[in-house]
Amino acid sequence: MVASRTTAVLARFPRHFEASEPGKLFETVVDALAQGIDLMTTQLAGVRRAHRLAYAATDRDLLGLAGLHGLRAQDFTLLSLRLSAVRALAAELADPNTSTSELATALSRLPTLLGVPSDAFAPFPAEGSDHTPARARLASALRDLASYPSELDLWRARINGVIALHRAGNGTVSSVLGAASNALDGSVERIVHSNDRFWHAALSRDRMRLVRPEPPGSQPAATRLVPPLDAFVLEENPPVDRVAEPTSRVNGEIFHVLRAGFGPLTATARVIGSGNRTVSPMLVDIDAGFGMFYLGAVPNGQALRFEADGRVRLGSTDASPLAFTFRGAVFADAKTNVTEADPRDFVFAGEGAPATDRVGTFPVTQPIADAFSNLSAAPHAPAALSPITLAVGETRFAFFVRVAHFGTHDSSSDEPALPVTVAGLFDDSVFATDIEAGDIPPPAGRVGFEWLEPEAFAVRLWLPPRLAAFDVAGETPVLERVRVSLERHRAAGVHVYVDYQDDTFKPPPEILAQITGAALT
C-alpha cells in the first residue's frame, strides 16, 4: 500500500519519468524517505504548537512560555490550590456516604471557591429526597472545571494577562489593579475612581466558571454561571500610625511637634498625670490660637486623651463634661522657656500696631461660651470637642496646669481670681514652686500625640474577603503571594501593602457604592 505522501511526491516528477509506474525504483526510494518526512512533520507541528500560547498542549510547554516573561511555577500555585479545593469538593459530593447536612455544608463553600451565587445550586425536588442524580451531575461539572485541559486554559489566561499588562505599561493604578485581579484568576471589567483620586476600585469577574448541570431533558441542558463582580480596591498613601511619645513638661513650657506630610491633620493629644501636679491641664496651639483644657485632676500615671474624633477620656471614663476648647489669641511671657518674640505670635491691636492678620482677640470657649469666667460652667452635657490639628512642619504648643492665684476678701464678699483656669480653688489647684536660678522645675505632666499620617510612596491593596478562604496551612498566605506578584508591576520606590477588606476598610462613599452595587450583579 503506497502512502498518500509517497503518491504526492511522485506526482511532482516530470511525466516522462513515469515515476509512479509500478515496479519503478522511484516509488520504493520515495516511500522510504516519506516515512521520515511524516515523523519530522509531526514533530515540527508539535514544536510549533508548543511555541504558541494558544495551542500549547502541556503544562511544561506553558511554563516554558511563561519563563520568557519571568514567570515561574510558583506563580501558579494559588490556582493549583483552588483547583485542588474544587476536586476535593467534587469527591465529597460524589461520595454516597455524604449526608444531607454535609452536602449543605459543601454547597455553602461554592460561593467562596468560585464566587457563584449562594442559591445557584438549590436541590432538585424531582430527583428524590437524597438528590443523588443532581449531586452526581454537580460532581461531574466540578471535575470538568478542575480537569487538565481546563487548568491549562486558566494558565494561558494568566500568562496572557501578564503580557497584556506589560504591553500597556507598568507603574500605574490600572496595572497594579489588573495584576492583582490576574494573579487571582480574574478579569477586570472596569475601574472606578474616588472624587479625590486617592481611591480606585477594579471590578473583576472570576475566570473559573462552573457549568450548572440541569436534569435530563431540560432546556438548556447546562448553564454557565457568571459570578458576581469582585472589587479590588487600591488606596494611595494609606494612613499609618505615628506617635510623639509623652514627654515631661513644666507649667508654662513652650515646645513644638515636627512632622512631614501632605497637609494639616487632626491628632489625639495625651496628657499623663505626674504626681499630684496635673490639675486642670491646658494644651494650647500657640500659632493657631486654639486650646483645650480639662477642669479636673489627672491622677499620677493615668492618661487624659483628647481624641481626634472629639471624645475626651480619662482612663476608661468619659471626661467630656469637664473638658473645653477655646479659640482666640494666646501670648507667651517671660515666665516661659521662650524669651524672644516669634513672628508667628499674636499681637495687640491699636494705634501703631503692625499690619497683620494675627491681631489678638478675646478667647471664646466651647461648648459653653463663658467657661473662663463662669465658675459654674462645669460640668456640662457630654459633647464632642474640636480636636488638635498638627501642621506640616512645626506646630508650637504651650502646656499649663492650674497654679493658684488667690483672689481678695473684704467684709462683704470674696472675689476669686479669674479666669477660672488660674483661680486658687481648694484641693483643685497646685501651688507655684519657688525655683532658684539653675534649678529644674517639677514636671506638671507628660504630653504626647498620636495621629494617622498618610504614608508617602506607598499604596494599600484591599482584596475581597472571600479570598481569605484560599489560605492553606503550611502554604504561603494569599496576601503574600499577591504582593510578590505585584513586584513586576508596581512603580519603583513604591511599597505595596496587601490586606483583606475588613472592619478597618473605610473607602469613600462613591467607592463603597460601586462595591455594593457590584456585589449585586
Structure, explained:
- With 521 residues, this protein is of the alpha+beta class.
- It folds into 3 domains: 4-42, no CATH class; 76-238 and 457-519, no CATH class; 242-452, no CATH class.
- It contains 11 helices and 22 strands.
- The chain has helices at 4-10, 25-50, 59-67, 77-94, 100-107, 110-114, 132-145, 148-168, 173-183, 478-485, 509-519; strands spanning 186-193, 199-206, 211-213, 222-224, 230-236, 239-249, 253-259, 265-272, 282-285, 290-294, 303-306, 312-314, 317-318, 323-327, 364-366, 388-390, 393-400, 408-409, 414-415, 445-454, 458-463, 495-500.
- The strands form 5 sheets. Strands 6, 8, 11, 12, 13, 16 and 20 form a 7-stranded antiparallel sheet that branches. Strands 7-17-9-10-14-15 form a 6-stranded antiparallel sheet, with no helix packed on it. A 5-stranded mixed sheet has the order 1-2-5-21-22, with helices on both faces.
- Strand 21, helix 10 and strand 22 form a beta-alpha-beta unit.
- The longest helix is centred in the first third of the chain and has 26 residues, at 25-50.
- The protein starts with a helix and ends with a helix.
- The model has no long low-confidence stretch (mean pLDDT 84).
Tell me, what's the shape?
Answer: elongated
- Secondary-structure class: alpha+beta
Percent of residues in helices comes to 25-40%
Count the strands? 22
Give the strand content.
Answer: 15-25%
Mean pLDDT over the full residue set: 84
User: How many structural domains can be distinguished in the coordinates?
Assistant: 3
Q: Radius of gyration in whole Å, from Cα?
A: 38 Å
Q: Largest sheet, if any? A: 7 strands, antiparallel
Supply the number of helical segments. Answer: 11
How far apart, in Å, are the first and last alpha carbons? Answer: 63 Å
Q: Which regions are unreliable across 5 or more consecutive residues at pLDDT < 50?
A: none
